[in-house]
Amino acid sequence: MTATTSDIDLIEKISGAFKKTADAKDNHRREALATFQKIGLPNSKTEEYRFAPITRALEKNFDFDKTGSSSDINSIEKFLIPNLDASVIVFLNGIYSKTLSKIVSPESELRISNLKLSIENGESTPYFQKYLANSADVFSALNSAFWQDGIFIQVPANTKVEKPLMILHINDAENSQSIGHTRLLVVLQEGSELTLIERSASVGANAIFHSFAEEIIVKEKATLDYIKIQNDEGKLHQVANSIIHQSNESKLSTFTLTMNGSLIRNNFNIAIDGEKCESHFYGLYLLNGNTIADNHTVVDHIKPNSHSNELYKGVMDGNSKGVFNGKIFVRPHAQKTNAFQSNRNILLTDTSTINTKPQLEIWADDVKCSHGCTTGQLDEEALFYLRSRGISHEEAKAMLLYAFAAETLEPIKNHELKSYLDDLISGRLNKF
After folding, report:
1. Domain boundary among 240, 273, 306
2. How many domains does the chain have?
3. Does some domain include residue 307?
4. Taking the model in full, what pTM does it have?
5. pLDDT score at 97
6. Gyration radius (Cα) of the chain, Å
7. Which residues pair with 90 in a beta bridge?
8. Residue 59 falls inside a structural domain
């Protein structure tokens, strides 16, 4: 990659901002910054980021010499999911807020601690950055250098956490720009169960940059339901690096909903490092205006006798841009693997775009694998049929779009959560 002068200037500004941080002398952070400088920020020639102009957005909208903004938020009620009885961990502009957080599960079910302290006392040492490498992505390295706060979550062996756990990222850009970097480490011990919800919410008209890195370890016979909701009304620029590591006979179900934000980039990596694992990945992006949503997924089958199914769908309106790049790897020893991937898209305007690239790399011969993608417009015959039955054009359009999108909600088990997501999706589709 050839860096431009502006890219180099931005790297220097970010590096200068690092020297002002309280942890600038930490060796691990200094190594992460060196990796960030070596990789360099992506530009239009960087294959993995060529449809997401994140560097240009950072250069245009952010002054990294300024410190992050403070927040006057003293209530989170409007950010919560109605009727959902859940524990809530709150981050305000990247900083953990103990006063706004609420833990309703007993410590015997759910153990939550400060990540920095857990690293210092060695509690999280066996897990922290074991699978999420700084060299994997430049923004992973950036986060490792700058992360301000983080949480270490543990579920003890053979424990079912009855109530969901919600991670709420609130970005407050009411008074000035907001720059935040957060970290999450989750470990499900053998035979445990957890429903994890992650939601981003923004307030204010100023620009927001939020990076977060998360490592989730699902041990033998553990079960994780993981839901990510990205519905920010603000000028959010977000890059998320997530790695989930599965062991023998573990079960994983994920759902990612992306609706708002200026530029959203999700790097979602699953390592199926065990036999008899079951993994389901669903995603839905409903975009309008000038929103860019870029989903990069990697499903890596390392051990034999496991099953994965991936389905991402998108609806693009206005000048929005959707990106899906999905990779499935089947390693030489991962025989008897079943792996399926599908990406389907609907474009509602001539100015909306989708760039999709499903990929399979298979080094084993006794497998069942498939991948594919479709892109098109609404079925005019179906639309005509509904209108001929007295249904208005707007209602008929919304009905068809909902029928297209609803399939991605299948893995959601919690009734209140599913009802909330259904209302979000219906509300957006009725506005298209």
Report:
1. 273
2. 2
3. no
4. 0.95
5. 94
6. 21
7. 97, 168
8. yes
Q: Are residues 171 and 27 in the same domain?
A: yes
Query: Can you tell me the distance from the alpha carbon of 432 to that of 416, in angstroms, rounded to the nearest whole number?
Result: 25
Per the CB < 8 A criterion, the answer to whether 92 and 170 are in contact is: yes
If asked whether residues 265 and 389 sit together in one domain, one would say no
Write phi, then psi, for 228 (nearest 5 degrees).
-120, 125
Domain boundary among 250, 273, 296: 273
How far apart are the C-alpha atoms of 267 and 293, rounded to whole Å? 11
Give Cβ neighbours of residue 195 (< 8 Å, ≥ 6 apart): 161, 164, 165, 224, 225, 226, 227, 413, 414, 417
Distance CA 189, CA 178 (A): 35
pLDDT in tens, 246-264: 999 999 999 999 999 999 9
Q: pLDDT tens for residues 360-413?
A: 999 999 999 999 999 999 988 999 999 999 999 999 999 999 999 999 998 899
Residue 20: burial class (beta carbons within 10 Å; 0-12, 13-18, 19+): exposed
Is residue 248 within 8 Å of residue 221, measured between CB atoms?
yes
Average pLDDT over residues 313-331: 97
Examine residue 87 and state whether it is found in any structural domain, yes or no: yes
Cβ neighbour number for residue 240 with a 10 Å cutoff: 25
- Does some domain include residue 258? yes
Q: What are the respective helix, strand and coil percentages of the chain, to the nearest 5?
A: 25, 40, 35
pLDDT score of 233: 78
Residue 10 tokens read as: 């931005």
At 182, is the secondary structure helix, strand, or coil? strand
| Domain encompassing residue 431 | 378-432
